[in-house]
Amino acid sequence: MTALQDQRSASTALPLSTRLYNEDLAPTKKAGRTWSAYNIFTLWANDVHSLGNYAFAIGLFALGLGAWQILLAFLVGAVLLFLLLSLSGFMGEKTGVPFPVMSRIAFGIHGAQLAAVARGGVAIAWFGVQTYLASVVLRVMLTAMFPGLAPLDTNNFLGMSTLGWISFVALWILQVIIVSFGMEMIRKYEAFAGPVILVTMLAIAVWMFIEAGGSIALSTNESLTGGEMWRQIFVGGALWIAIYGTFVLNFCDFTRSATSKKAITRGNFVGIPLNMLFFGAIVVVLAGAQFKINGQIIESPSDIVQTIPNTFFLVLACLALLVLTVAVNLMANFVAPIYMFTNLFPRRLNFRSAAIVSAVIGLVILPWNLYNNPVVIVYFLGGLGAILGPIFGVIMADYWIIRKAQINVPDLYTEAANGEYHYKRGVNPRAIIALVPAAVIAIVLALAPAFSAVAGFSWFFGAGLAAVFYLIVADRTARFRDVDGEALAVASAH
């Protein structure tokens, strides 16, 4: 151990383990935390307006939902997300620990690796996919600015053109540079990107509204009615939870540096319910205006950007979409695998080196080939993602109902047999007993064609069943201590 760790060990009842503790996994000090309500809001200002979310939301219009039905679906999802993210965020603010460490509370100091790897594994694949999607926008921008580059976009090497490789690698390097400066640089980037994308999407919507003659189509010619309409509304709301099922797990990675619970609540309220309704209005205008113009339904805002006749404004719009996609990727898909690898190899990797490892894997898996393979997306990433709901259910039930938020933070970093989170050889068998059947059910509901009518609710079934199973098997005789981690904490902007 270092002198710093020896000093901290002396102030705790049990010795710290170098297999569980380093500067990046340590809790953050209460004093000097920097994530304000505005910073929490800008996370959502960026993530809600991601290109993937636009594609999903416009798909609701294509399914036959009209303007008010889409807004209602978003409102249903937003209210549920606000509640779930607040519960998850408060855990980070109280303990100051990242998600892999938070998982030790319910799953044990070693069993937590299961939750961390499941979350990080999904994220690392999507990091590569989102970087690829951003590179497509960059290619559009480069060929608009420099038409002579078009021939570089006609060949194929490992599934992508020369210009595609240049665009992908450039964005890959940019993200690695940003992340190498730590969470504080991510906070600053998100704060910069949030207003940029909000203004850009509003401008595109206004332009489309004008192009459509000052009015839009509020629905397609095949609008849903009756029971099927209401089913799709609630499925749409539920799918918002599924989309954010990854992020509700590791929201503590960000709120561990939040200034207060009030900052989390305010940031979540403006960033989720209010921002989602603004997002919904943008979706309705974009889809409705395009449908009125030529009877077609767009797939993404990037489809509209490519039609902007003025090169200068096309380039500005592309730049904004690039800023957005990088912001979304950093928060949703890059931070989680970094902490995953830091947790797996705390004596060998720090935040920066773990970022490089994550980025390299995101490159060598050739993510554009994954994205173009429905089997991989649906069955591998979909199946892996389906178990995140049950993980969330176990963690929430254990933290809020069984322990009532009484956490012994120093014991999260000890391998001593009498440590509170040692359980049996570092694994809580009760958590595994609750997780496995709930995960199997969630995966079947998500992937089996016979259950396609309820597939959109698989996250809820998984999370709810796991919580119930855990409450049935949990040890209710255990006594818990509430001990903060200030004695072994580090500055939040380290």
Structure description:
The chain has 494 residues and is mainly α. The chain has a domain at 31-369: Hydantoin permease (Orthogonal Bundle). 68% of the residues lie in helices and 0% in strands. The chain has 20 helices and no strands. The longest helix is centred in the N-terminal third of the chain and has 34 residues, at 112-145. It is globular and about 70 Å long. Keywords: Membrane, Transmembrane, Transmembrane helix. It is a multi-pass membrane protein. This is Nucleobase:cation symporter-1, NCS1 family. The chain crosses the membrane at residues 54-85, 123-146, 158-179, 191-210, 230-251, 272-291, 311-339, 351-371, 377-402, 431-451, 457-473. Belongs to the purine-cytosine permease (2.A.39) family.
CATH class of the domain at 31-369: Mainly Alpha
CATH architecture of the domain at 31-369: Orthogonal Bundle
Note the run of SSEs as H and E: HHHHHHHHHHHHHHHHHHHH
Q: Which superfamily, in CATH terms, is the homologous superfamily of the domain at 31-369?
A: Hydantoin permease
Gist of the model:
The chain has 494 residues and is mainly alpha-helical. The protein has helices at residues 3-10, 37-47, 51-63, 67-95, 99-107, 112-145, 162-180, 183-211, 226-243, 245-250, 252-255, 261-294, 301-305, 311-344, 351-364, 367-371, 374-386, 388-402, 429-447, 458-473.
Task: Give the topology.
Layout: H1 3-10, H2 37-47, H3 51-63, H4 67-95, H5 99-107, H6 112-145, H7 162-180, H8 183-211, H9 226-243, H10 245-250, H11 252-255, H12 261-294, H13 301-305, H14 311-344, H15 351-364, H16 367-371, H17 374-386, H18 388-402, H19 429-447, H20 458-473
Helix pairs in contact: 2-8, 2-12, 3-12, 4-9, 4-12, 5-6, 5-18, 6-7, 6-14, 6-15, 7-15, 8-12, 8-14, 14-15, 17-19, 18-19, 18-20, 19-20
Transmembrane segments: 54-85, 123-146, 158-179, 191-210, 230-251, 272-291, 311-339, 351-371, 377-402, 431-451, 457-473
Family: Belongs to the purine-cytosine permease (2.A.39) family.
Keywords: Membrane, Transmembrane, Transmembrane helix
